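Re: the request from the purification team.
They wanted to know what the chain is likely to look like in 3D before they choose a buffer screen. I agreed to run a prediction and write the result into the notebook, where they can find it.
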Amino acid sequence: MPLKGIKVIEMAGLAPGPFCGMLLAEFGASVIRVDKVGNELTIPDLAAHGKRSIALNLKTKGGVEVFKKMSRHSDIIIDPFRRGVMEKMKIGPDDIMQINKQIIYARLTGFGQKGPYADMAGHDINFLGLSGLLSLFGRANEKPTPPVNLAADFGGGGLMCALGIILALFERSRSNLGQVVDASMVEGTAYLGSWMFRTQQVPGLWSNPRGQNILDTGTHFYNTYETKDKRYMAIGALEGKFYNNLLEKLGLSKDEVPQFDNFGKNHALFVDLFKEKTQAEWCAIFDGVDACVTPILNLEDTPHHPHNKENETFRITENNLVIPNPTPRLSRTPGISMTTCKNPEPGEHSVEILNELGFDSKEIDNFLTNEIVIQAQFNSKL
């Protein structure tokens, strides 16, 4: 695996931080999650398969000592907190880089390290709003609609942060020095939307209000349609040759349904037409045809579609959860899904990790007795 031997410290957080750590873990990195003592996340970390956990009280001198010892033997720290939080505990980049000049310190924040919003709380919808992209999402004459928390948390956040870490790792192989990765979700989301920004002056692409453009459901040939069985089909017949194939399979002509005219009327026609057949019937008509027409699958059905099945795009867990397999695929050193491993309880591996760091039994007992470190206790299931 490409990241085998790389050691990561992931400060416990929500969504983007755990996702970033998951990406690194599934491509071979060893990831230790640092949980707060007594910490109970409102949303459980479901991206922690294959990670280990130590529960540390970083408000104590002993807890900071343990963290610094971990940092001496690590390659990466993922910090998901607002600016100043890690510095307040004396484990910010300046503190850690004094003891490990090779460490890559990834700061994954919503609003970044400076600016009037840097100290404010926020979530995906706020970062997406400030990036400008949320203004583009939604139907005509309706308010902006956030695409769940996908774009900022996971695209502009966790994924961009992982990219920054990989870039810093590559550079370190030449300089032998670490650096700080500043991954702001506002900036990451804006960068993710570079194409949308760069095409604003392309005639006909974004010249109309939200929901009335070519790619935002403003046309009949780039849209979604309900089928007879209350499922849906996706159409993306942008190019003329694909549009011609679409019309041919629908039994229509360009004179009846011109591509770049009468969008509202044509959309209404397609709405009625697609309700005449089930999703399976439409797939039988369009599968293998260059008309850019595909089914919209629900999460339960995705692993069973012939294309996804042959490519092993997903795996199904013992609990019947559908989980995407790691991508991109590397021919020699592919990633491996960690879903066969359980998610660690906070502090599940505390003593194990302390032993690996070289603390003796007396020191470990002191940490546990004074609740500097917590070891999770498990009830026997005999």
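For the purification team: The radius of gyration is 25 Å.
Please add any questions underneath this entry.
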